[in-house]
Design a protein that fits this description.
The protein is of the alpha+beta class. It has 2 domains: 50 residues; 105 residues, Immunoglobulin-like, CATH 2.60.40. Helix content is 28%, strand content 34%. The chain has 1 helix and 10 strands. Strands 1-2-8-6 form a 4-stranded antiparallel β-sheet, with no helix packed on it. Strands 5-4-9-10 form a 4-stranded antiparallel β-sheet, with no helix packed on it. A hairpin with a 5-residue loop joins strand 1 and strand 2. The protein is rod-shaped and about 135 Å long. The N and C termini lie far apart (121 Å). The mean pLDDT is 80.
Length: 176
């Protein structure tokens, strides 16, 4: 008698290979999506950092550094200033000074202050403030007298300088 085996054997090796290939392709797709999200996030962060850096450089360079100051006989504030390193030239019409003293405040525009080049023995008024040179900056307050005066020097479209002045009301006394 002859034995015949009519049962079929199932071949599971190919099914396991196809399943592994599907999992591998899925992992590649997930990795590609994750990489795209990471690249987009990094690009957005770089753009924000660049804008912040540009804004910070603009704010920190084009501003005044106040080196000293005193009150003159007319009760004007004589301040010795320079532009911060890296600044560009500034027209005196682009400068606005704000003074706060107690409950009083002054906004002094370019008509109420004059720049004098410290090296100019004739005291000739300067229309442009250049980097690297020192200037005597005269501010004539309208409402402020003796006491603590908070001063802001703003450069239009650029930075600002904050300075607290201690005004005694006596000519020649330091106020910074």
């Amino acid at each position: 008698m002859e034995n015949k085996n009519n049962s079929q054997k199932e071949d599971t090796v190919a099914a396991i290979g196809i399943g592994a290939m599907i999992v591998f392709i899925a992992l590649i797709l997930v990795a590609a999506v994750a990489a795209a999200v990471i690249i987009q996030t990094a690009e957005k962060l770089q753009q924000n950092a660049q804008k912040t850096g540009d804004d910070t450089a603009k704010q920190s360079t084009s501003r005044f550094m106040v080196n000293a100051g005193s009150e003159d006989a007319a009760n004007d504030y004589m301040l010795f200033v320079k532009l911060a390193p890296g600044s560009t030239a500034v027209a005196d019409t682009d400068v606005v000074v704000q003074l706060y003293c107690g409950t009083q405040s002054d906004t002094v525009d370019s008509n109420n202050h004059v720049f004098y080049d410290m090296d100019d023995v004739n005291g000739a008024a300067q229309a442009t403030v250049s980097p690297g040179a020192g200037y005597a900056f005269v501010v004539t307050p309208n409402n402020c007298g003796a006491g603590t005066v908070t001063m802001w020097i703003h450069i239009e479209g650029s930075g600002s300088t904050y300075q607290v002045l201690e005004v005694s009301g006596t000519a020649g006394q330091p106020i910074i």
